[in-house]
């Protein structure tokens, strides 16, 4: 089983979001970066489990600049065999998807893994784009996967339930909670990661189809109104008359 | 022309379908064009979507559409858009939509905005707002292409009636073979799924154990609300994972979110801060969640929740 795991670099989950002077971008000073949790905890780890069970290889793919290498090395420390970084900055979802599709086509992978979304842009669209560009099956927000030869039985999350589907390789998939358990890299993995290949390749030409014009922060909450615990009738009255939500 | 894909579940439309048609009609009005709706498969009363601003409703029925397949649905929607000359394609940002937005964008070489939460601005170009960083910021995203694909977050805009039922016209599109085979679909009956819920009651570690969840369930039942939980509670198995709301769980935007025994870690807030009204019940007055709350009750939740449940019942009894 030859697998490609596409990973993003995102600000860590506790990051306090602040904007730059003209709101054209975020203020990135002091921001710590991590591998997007869905990519790391679920997609990468399940791919490694499949490799451990049935053999094959796990390649990490990132589309981004050189300062993403630390995140890629972490993926190698967790257990991936090698990595590819397509050298590019920005470009938007479809640009990134076209870079991934080009690498996926060249490498001939059986499964192309994604996290269900990045925790920064919350797009959850790149996996489906890549599947369409390669004309292969895609299962989004998958919480369970079992392989049987070249056929996978996959559980995907739907509103208020699940759907169980069958797909055959090659396919693309985005992993959600439940797919696997987070792995912490050990010292041996970290040492080995330094010697694993990280190939940097040039980006293909592709147009940016979207661009962020500006950012803003959500309106600040007004101070909390404290309600006497003995008087829940008052809370109900406020929810009905003031907030108008019941 | 604006084409809205209105998804039906078991042949019927939910409120979210009315929201997305309302959104499409308003987008079409901003662009000075018309909004048509597309329904796939067997749908009851499709023409009713006219009430929310669709000038026409098209239906595409084929055996291949009986279960969901991303390739088949994409071919259907993109094919209909090309046939009708629609350049803006709008759908819901639900599990179906998330499987389709990327495919449609790739197929039509279109710019896309997944998870939009406001009507597009046509002032100097075409841009759409969406929440990013799980609600910690809002981005205004320009789409620079001829075709545009947008998926709308649920409960972002109110449903508006602006017309009356219209006729339904059949349309036919060549469909490819499915790439996925659906073996089984399981939905909890009678419970509004979290992403669609208008009222949510949520519990955290302050509940002390799964055996105490009755106080959460009773309040939810009295309100007609859906239950949720914080991450630690799902991680230790007190509650199922699909109830976990927060940055790495389900992101929700209900009208009312009642949180009991949840301190309000930044990752939890990220998944719930788009709620219109937040009520926090916690015995620790220093709980960070109070800073994000509209209403707060500093008290033991085991005292307060039953009292709130009774007050809700009395209110409903009128």
TrEMBL record, chain A:
<keyword id="KW-0249">Electron transport</keyword>
<dbReference type="InterPro" id="IPR012255">
    <property type="entry name" value="ETF_b"/>
</dbReference>
<dbReference type="GO" id="GO:0009055">
    <property type="term" value="F:electron transfer activity"/>
</dbReference>
<feature type="domain" description="Electron transfer flavoprotein alpha/beta-subunit N-terminal">
    <location>
        <begin position="23"/>
        <end position="210"/>
    </location>
</feature>
<keyword id="KW-0813">Transport</keyword>
<dbReference type="Pfam" id="PF01012">
    <property type="entry name" value="ETF"/>
</dbReference>
<dbReference type="InterPro" id="IPR014729">
    <property type="entry name" value="Rossmann-like_a/b/a_fold"/>
</dbReference>
<protein>
    <submittedName>
        <fullName>Electron transfer flavoprotein beta subunit</fullName>
    </submittedName>
</protein>
<dbReference type="InterPro" id="IPR014730">
    <property type="entry name" value="ETF_a/b_N"/>
</dbReference>
TrEMBL record, chain B:
<dbReference type="InterPro" id="IPR001308">
    <property type="entry name" value="ETF_a/FixB"/>
</dbReference>
<dbReference type="InterPro" id="IPR014730">
    <property type="entry name" value="ETF_a/b_N"/>
</dbReference>
<dbReference type="GO" id="GO:0033539">
    <property type="term" value="P:fatty acid beta-oxidation using acyl-CoA dehydrogenase"/>
</dbReference>
<keyword id="KW-0249">Electron transport</keyword>
<dbReference type="GO" id="GO:0050660">
    <property type="term" value="F:flavin adenine dinucleotide binding"/>
</dbReference>
<dbReference type="Pfam" id="PF00766">
    <property type="entry name" value="ETF_alpha"/>
</dbReference>
<keyword id="KW-0813">Transport</keyword>
<dbReference type="InterPro" id="IPR014729">
    <property type="entry name" value="Rossmann-like_a/b/a_fold"/>
</dbReference>
<protein>
    <submittedName>
        <fullName>Electron transfer flavoprotein alpha subunit apoprotein</fullName>
    </submittedName>
</protein>
<feature type="binding site">
    <location>
        <position position="282"/>
    </location>
    <ligand>
        <name>FAD</name>
    </ligand>
</feature>
<feature type="binding site">
    <location>
        <begin position="230"/>
        <end position="231"/>
    </location>
    <ligand>
        <name>FAD</name>
    </ligand>
</feature>
<dbReference type="GO" id="GO:0009055">
    <property type="term" value="F:electron transfer activity"/>
</dbReference>
<keyword id="KW-0274">FAD</keyword>
<dbReference type="InterPro" id="IPR029035">
    <property type="entry name" value="DHS-like_NAD/FAD-binding_dom"/>
</dbReference>
<dbReference type="Pfam" id="PF01012">
    <property type="entry name" value="ETF"/>
</dbReference>
<comment type="similarity">
    <text>Belongs to the ETF alpha-subunit/FixB family.</text>
</comment>
<feature type="binding site">
    <location>
        <position position="205"/>
    </location>
    <ligand>
        <name>FAD</name>
    </ligand>
</feature>
<keyword id="KW-0285">Flavoprotein</keyword>
<feature type="domain" description="Electron transfer flavoprotein alpha/beta-subunit N-terminal">
    <location>
        <begin position="2"/>
        <end position="186"/>
    </location>
</feature>
<dbReference type="InterPro" id="IPR014731">
    <property type="entry name" value="ETF_asu_C"/>
</dbReference>
<feature type="binding site">
    <location>
        <begin position="261"/>
        <end position="268"/>
    </location>
    <ligand>
        <name>FAD</name>
    </ligand>
</feature>
